[in-house]
Automatic annotation (TrEMBL):
Reactions accelerated catalytically: tRNA(His) + L-histidine + ATP = L-histidyl-tRNA(His) + AMP + diphosphate + H(+)
Localization terms from the record: Cytoplasm
EC number: 6.1.1.21
Limits of the Aminoacyl-transfer RNA synthetases class-II family profile domain: 35-335
Family: Belongs to the class-II aminoacyl-tRNA synthetase family.
Lineage: Bacteria, Bacillati, Actinomycetota, Actinomycetes, Mycobacteriales
CDD domains: HisRS-like_core, HisRS_anticodon
Subunit structure, interactors included: Homodimer.
Protein's UniProt name: Histidine--tRNA ligase
GO BP: any one term: histidyl-tRNA aminoacylation
Record key words, sorted: Aminoacyl-tRNA synthetase, ATP-binding, Cytoplasm, Ligase, Nucleotide-binding, Protein biosynthesis
PANTHER family: HISTIDINE--TRNA LIGASE, MITOCHONDRIAL-RELATED (PTHR43707:SF1), HISTIDYL-TRNA SYNTHETASE (PTHR43707)
């Protein structure tokens, strides 16, 4: 029989497994904790939704919708898409379940995988993980500042330092259309190539984000949205900055910021990390007044963010920092003989019932191999039991940091281990 070839994960889909998965979980849970502290409740969203939801919500002209969606027909020919982002799905769930008929703002938090058919490179995946929040139904600059501060607090709590918060205002209905025309007028006078000219027609703002030096030079004097905000949009933005100052959240205003999704209005922001190379965005978000109405709901405002968990893990690595979810065990049992094994299996169950994280050496390994297992497990203590100790009613408690071992009465194991761990 010929050997079948082995399998590989799909391109751009990272695996997380121990011990490094502890870091992934710690980052994800740390970011969720920051959202919980500010009153955001959990929402569990479908992994796939009606394709039209994303087309209409995220915008047909965006790369995400036009090039990166994982779209498929179900068995009856209905088109679904693996979620490329979370905001449109949250809006759909809020509208469908009338969450917006209760107290406002509706504050929700989600975590999980998202899917974009991207050109894979370091920090840019096809299955990416985000923690996101959305606050819907109140147009208050203090809420913008809260959302931004939640992300900032999450990053800081993880120990991240080498990043900056960039923000700007993209204006609203009362000033963006006029600014768009002004910008197009400016761009159409430039000697742009065909494709860039087309981009200027569809989404002129994106031309300001062009990385080519010659385009950068040509657009250096382009009019900027931030200088053409309506009075109310400007007042909103100034207040956001004031609240951020009050909370001690540092920021830089970047009037040339361009986001990859179409729904943004007014406050828009990005967290940029210096240690990540080209894929430096560790999180981003903004206000999206108008999105809910566009998706068939009430005319309610909203603001939120999505933080890239994968990239935050990479950012911590770039800073030489580690976080852990404490998933290693406290105690590792080493049975030496069949009778000892009977006892240790039962003891492990008792220790776990007492909330003590416990693992065992399985497969009848000898003392040396089992002790190696104990060291690798990351446990603080080993419980070493031979058949002779069982008859004596004793068990060895070994401190894996100092190497010291003492004998304790078998019947007192759970209490003594708990006391030893508490003494840490
Ligand atoms: P986004 O900027 O497209 O926004 O994505 C948010 C974050 O997800 C990015 O800053 C980045 O860290 C991470 N990310 C995006 N694409 C990839 C990828 N291919 N590989 C690895 N990480 C990636 C949104 O998705 C909006 N829904 C955020 C939002 C919520 N705005 C308002 N509410």
């Amino acid at each position: 029989m010929t050997k079948t070839s082995s399998f590989q994960a799909p391109k751009g889909v990272p695996d997380y497994f121990p011990p490094n998965s502890a870091e992934f979980v710690a980052v994800r849970d740390g970011l969720i904790r920051a959202a919980r502290l500010a009153g955001y409740g959990h929402i569990e969203l479908p992994i796939f939704e009606d394709t039209a939801l994303f087309a209409r919500g995220v915008g047909e002209s965006t790369d995400v919708v036009s090039k990166e969606m994982w779209t498929f027909d179900d068995r009856k020919g209905k088109s679904y898409t693996l979620r490329p982002e979370g905001t449109a799905g949250v809006m759909r769930a809020v509208i469908e379940n009338s969450l917006d008929r209760g107290q406002l703002p509706v504050k929700l938090c989600y975590a999980g995988p998202f899917f974009r058919y991207e050109n894979v490179q370091a920090g840019r995946y096809r299955q990416l993980q985000q923690v996101g929040v959305e606050a819907i139904g109140v147009d208050d600059p203090a809420l913008d500042a809260e959302v931004i501060a939640v992300a900032d607090t999450g990053f800081r709590a993880l120990g991240l330092t080498d990043y900056r918060l960039e923000l700007t205002s993209l204006g609203d209905d009362t000033c963006r259309p006029q600014y768009r025309e002004l910008l197009q007028e400016f761009l159409f006078k430039l000697p742009l190539d065909e494709e860039t000219r087309r981009r200027a027609q569809i989404n002129p703002l994106r031309v300001l984000d062009d990385k080519r030096p010659e385009v950068k030079e040509m657009t250096a004097d382009a009019p900027l949205m931030i200088d053409h905000l309506s009075e109310s949009a400007k007042a909103h933005f100034d207040q956001v900055l004031g609240f951020l100052d009050g909370m001690g959240v540092p920021y830089v205003v970047n009037p040339r910021m361009v986001r990859g999704l179409d729904y943004y209005t007014k406050t828009t922001f990005e967290f940029v990390h210096d240690g990540l190379g080209a894929q430096s965005g560790i999180g981003g978000g903004g206000r999206y007044d108008g999105l809910m109405e566009k998706l068939g709901g009430q005319a309610l405002s909203g603001i939120g963010f999505g933080i890239g968990v994968d990239r935050t893990v990479l950012a911590l690595k770039a800073e030489g920092k580690t976080v852990t979810d404490g998933s290693s065990v406290d105690v590792y049992g080493v049975p030496l003989g069949e009778v000892a094994k009977q006892h240790l299996v039962a003891l492990a169950a008792q220790l776990r019932a007492a909330g003590i994280r416990t693992d065992l050496a399985y497969g009848g390994r000898g003392l040396k191999g089992a002790m190696k297992g104990a060291d690798r497990s990351g446990a603080r203590f080993a419980l070493v039991l031979g058949d002779r100790e069982v008859t004596e009613g004793q068990i060895g408690l070994k401190d894996l940091r100092t190497g010291e071992q003492r004998s304790i009465p078998l019947t007192e194991t759970v209490a003594q281990v708990a006391a030893a761990l508490a003494a840490e």
